Amino acid sequence: MAFNAADSYDRFMGRFSRPLAQVFADRTGVRAGQRALDVGCGPGALTEVLIERLGLDHVEAVDPSPPFVAAIAERFPGLSVREGTAEHLPHADDSFDLSLAQLVVHFMADPVAGLRQMARVTRPGGTVAAAVWDLTPGARGPVSPFQTAVAEVDPSWVVSQARPGGARGELGELFRSAGLRQVEESVLTAEVPIASFEDWWEPFLLGIGPAGDYVAGLDERARHELRERTRRLLPDGAFTMPVDAWCAVATV
């Protein structure tokens, strides 16, 4: 999977992750005076919200992708951002009031280990929280229409896209397996304006993530057929797309 092109990733998923970040920060109670860590920061959708609410000196970020680390360092000069994985966070114990992971648990090599690390770097009484897209069939996710269209001809691929935390109750169970207690689960909904079908479809051609890989592997005819099947699932003209994410919040 290609997740190392910061600009392309931002075009593909940023339009969804930026509004989600506002809702996620509200849900986790981000407030002035706290210190926060953005785990798996990517190009900085959640990081930006944390900086707006807490100030640059109260936010740190970490990501395993060197291009993402370079991009976010350029975007927010002076931000403390490091290269590292959730499973091996390069931070001291009890360093933060909040450790947050948006759209990351899906792709952790070991989600339970990653959540344990997030708890380790969070002070007692602090908050560990994560949000992941709802990936259940028929869900309201950013790529749900795409998956519905693919399922008409290649259902095995859609089945293969199941990821940790993507179904109801799974994220909370991962938290509890990591030793976290007082876990509160909820659904977050973000409203995303889409200018047109073409505006929604074009980023799928950038080769980003599993959907981009899938499109890139099709010949021209199959790509066109998939595009037209997907078009039938979405409105004509401009529309607003509600997208849902599972959220789990725990107190350390």
Overall description:
- This protein is of the alpha/beta class and 252 residues long.
- It has a single domain, classed as 3-Layer(aba) Sandwich (Rossmann fold), CATH 3.40.50.150.
- It has ten helices and seven strands.
- Strands 3-2-1-4-5-7-6 form a seven-stranded mixed sheet, with helices on both faces.
- Helix 5 (144-151) crosses helix 10 (220-231).
- The protein starts with 5 loop residues before the first helix and ends with a strand.
- The relative contact order is 0.17.
Unreliable residue runs: none
- Main sheet specs: 7 strands, mixed
Number of strands: 7
CATH class category: Alpha Beta
CATH superfamily (homologous) name = Vaccinia Virus protein VP39
CATH architecture heading: 3-Layer(aba) Sandwich
The separation of the N and C termini measures 33 Å
Task: Say what oligomer this is.
Answer: single chain
Structural class: alpha/beta
- The general outline is globular
Write out the strand line-up for the largest beta sheet, numbering strands in chain order.
3-2-1-4-5-7-6
Give me the Rg, rounded. 18 Å
What are its keywords?
252 residues, methyltransferase activity, Rossmann fold, seven-stranded mixed beta sheet, single chain, alpha/beta, 10 helices, 7 strands
Any chance you could write out the topology, listing elements then pairs?
Blueprint: H1 6-28, E1 36-39, H2 45-54, E2 59-63, H3 66-75, E3 80-83, E4 96-102, H4 111-120, E5 122-133, H5 144-151, H6 155-160, H7 170-177, E6 181-194, H8 197-201, H9 209-216, H10 220-231, E7 239-251
Short structural summary:
Belongs to the methyltransferase superfamily. α3 links the parallel β2 and β3 (80-83). This protein is of the alpha/beta class.
